[in-house]
Structures are given as C-alpha cells and as structure tokens.
Amino acid sequence: MKKQTLSILLALVLLLSISIFPVFAQELSEDEVSGYFGAIEDWTTQDLALAGVDSEAVDLTEFEAKSVENPVPTAELTDEVTVEGEKGVDLQAKSIIDPATVTLSGEFVACGDGKIKIEIGLKRTADSSSTGMPNMIFVKSVIVTIGTTDYELQNCKSQYGDACSKVYLDASGNATLTGYVEIPRVLDTTPVSFDVEINYSKTAHGALETPVTKSGGSATSTKDLCATEGVDVVATKGIYEQCGGKASFKADIEVPDEDGPECLVPAQIYVEGTSYSNYTCRYTRFGSEGYPFGGDYCTPGKAIPVKPGDKIRFEAIINDLTNPVAETSGGADLNVDWRFGYNPAMISGVMESVPGPAELCDAKIVPLKPLDSMEDANDPIEPSGWYNTYDKAVVGLYQKCGKFAVMQIRLRNDGAKTGFINLPGSVAVNGGAPIAFYWLSSVAPHGNKVALGPGEIVTLVGRIWLTNLISQTNSDGAANVAVNFSDLGLYMTGSLFSDRVNWRCY
C-alpha cells in the first residue's frame, strides 16, 4: 500500500475517533468565535483565483442570491418590545466603571512565596440613558504597577468565581476582582504600594473604554516567616543544555548556629527572570566531616525542617527551559535566583552552558491556542492523541445554509534556528475534503512556505469553499475540521461553528 494512501486512511480514522481524545486546550464558546471572526463574506472571483479555481467554470449567482446583502424580507413587529419600560436593545452590557469609587487592597506573607494577593472593588456609574442597566463588563487586562515595574494580574476572578474576561455586576452595580502578582524578590514586612490599570469593554468584542486607573493601593504582610539570620551559601553550581534543554542548579547551604530558620520551603526558581515552580527538587544532608548521610526528594512549596548547623545541598532540576532561545543557544551563563520560604534572601548563582544533543538547536514548530485572545494563549498545546494529534488547535465559523467557512491556526518556533512551514494542502471537514481553500498568513510567505525565526509566531487563516456538508449546514451543529501539516508531523483538529445567520435558508 502506498504511503500517501496509508496517511489518508490514518487521517480519516483519527477524525472519526476524535471524541475519545482528552481535552487539553481551553474551550471556546460559539459566541466568542463568532464575535472574533465576524461576518463571513461570500467568495468573489479573486477568492476563486487564490484557491486555484477557474472562475469562468463557476456560477456565483446561486451564492449571491442568498447573500447577506439581499436577504428575503421578513415580517416586522408592529409593537416595540419593552422590558420595564426600556427598549430591549438598551439592556445590553453598557456599564461604565466609576474610577473615583475603585478600592484597592492587598496582602502577602513575608519571606513566603513572593505572591501578593490583590483585591479590587469596582462600581458602575449612576444609571443614565447612556450607561444602561447594570449588567456586566469584559475585562481585557489588569495591570498592577509596583515601583516602576508592571505586572499583569494572574488568576483574576470575579466575586462569583468567574474569570475576569466576563465580570457580572451585582444588583447594586458592584463587582470585586481578585488575583495575584508574583514579585521576583523576597518580601519583608514592609507594606508594598501599588497602582492599578483596568482595561475593559462594554461588550465582548467591543472597543476598549477609557482605562480605569487607581493609585495608592497598599498590600500588607499577614504573617512574618522571616528568620533573623539567613542561611550561609557555601557554594553553587548550575549547568544547562544549550538550546533550551534540561537544566540543574545545586546550592550547598549551612544553617546558622543562632537565629536561623527552623525550616526551609523550596519555592520558585528564576532563570533569567523566568519563574519555574514545577521542577524536580531533592536534597542531601551532610555530616560535620562532609560525608552525606541522608536525603530525599522535596516538593516545591512544602517545608523541610532544619536545625542550627545543618549542612544541606539542594538541587533543582528543570526538564525544559522556556527562556528565549537567544539566551540558551549562545552559550552564555544564565543568572539564577532561588527562593526559599523563611529565608530572607534569594540563593543566587549561574548556570553554565554544556553541549546538548544537536537536535535541541533545530527549529521546533509548536501549536498554540488558535486565538491569541484566549487565556494562556501563548502556552503550547500538548498532544491529545497518537500521531501528534492536537485537539482544539483549530477554530472557525461556517455559513449556515451557505458554502463558505473560515478557520484559524497559530504556530510558534521554539527552536534556535529558523524553521519553515509548508502551507498545508490537506484540509478535511466532517471527514470530507472541501473543493477549494486558500491561506492567509500573518508572516509573508515565500511561495508556499512561511519562514519562522526563533520565537516568532504565525497566524494562518484558511478560507474554505465547502461542498461536502451543504445538507448539514442548516442544523447549526458544529462541524469537525482537521488540518494536516505532514512535513511537521502535526495533525490539528477543532470545530467550525455555525454563524446562525438564517437569511440564506429562505
């Protein structure tokens, strides 16, 4: 059997079996996707030319007859619908936040994990015809400024436990946002001053309103874990594989005889400012003569009891450095700061470069969340099945009762060399191939290839002319889409949602 035939059969099996794969990527609602892509226009002769179709052999009149510009007239309501005396359209999210009423507070643990919990109180302006009824706001970002450094609020939640991307105001027009920022230094009991900037819109995909800014916030220590004397750092040693491979950092420490910490908590380790908390941790105890006599694995965030005069070696093993490849491919030393709870200072040192497997320096194309507006959009998607299948890596819309669809994919080069992406020539919708499609790229292609430098991201938008599921497009059910990057070994799947425009069905 030919390899091409085998690949096609394998792709079909994967598409039919997609429901058994676990979900790794964030879910997208149909409303979010529809708001992102907007209306899907019918194809023109230029679209046909880009897709390699002879425009003279295609009759476009049947599509134009059912286009958005020429809908079939529908009966109009004679009476205007009102709710509590107001027009229904005025009940859309139109809440404006009053900067004067914003409240700020924060708290942290001195010599803890370096995280400051932030709480922000919001209140809408008074009712007016321009403001609308209390409803919701859509928060795009919350920037916390400490000194001269900006931090984006992490794990932002509303008072109802929802993500801050959609914040419901209560009946009085109030809302509370909570989250944290991580400061890459040891915090003592001194209060931390901070300012906040909130960027939001009144609708899910509307223009941003004037940012809400508030100064004068203060975070206070709720618990003091700082020892009077910090541990003595006897020696440090660190190595890393070039081009972002494995890394190890060891620190030999000695607990002071007096006023030292009663325990140590391995916490975040910073490599060139990038924070790592999910690393392999282990420690070894040494006797007075310098001989090891015990040790174990340690868990980041869990305390290890120590005694005066203890001599301990701690080691952090990072499986995959995510620093910019420009740092890990040049052979330069990487600065390291390791936070330990109860210790009033970071344990600092450097990682020296060692040659790793040559393939680590090659281009490494990884799929990202399909929309850059998603939470954790720049975190690579993990494979969700065999044959490098990536579920929910593609998303798009199709025209209800129409013939056209649009989809989007995002890829990044995490390698140290320039990589090349062949624009995929294999697309399947519900297991069948569309008659034609073409790609739009955020990076200028060279022929049928896109060159990605280290760390560079490309967004690919595919325009599809559907022929295999016209009988299904009136149901509003999601269609499965699969894109095969055969040269990269990436099989990316996702959903095309209905645009729910009924005009074409008349």
Summary of the model, kept short:
This protein has 5 helices and 31 strands. With 506 residues, it is mainly β. The strands form 5 sheets. Strands 12, 13, 14, 15, 16, 17, 18, 19, 20 and 21 form a 10-stranded mixed sheet that branches. Strands 3, 4, 5, 6, 7, 8, 9, 10 and 11 form a 9-stranded mixed sheet that branches.
Task: Assign a percent range to the helix content.
Answer: under 10%
The total number of structural domains is 3
| Biggest sheet details | 10 strands, mixed
Count, helices: 5
Q: How many DSSP-defined strands? A: 31
Radius of gyration: 28 Å
Range of strand content: 35-45%
By helix and strand content, what is the structural category?
Answer: mainly beta
Show unreliable segments. 1-26, 65-91
- Distance between the amino and carboxyl termini: 47 Å
Q: Which shape, going by the Cα principal axes?
A: flat
User: Kindly state the mean pLDDT as a whole number?
Assistant: 82
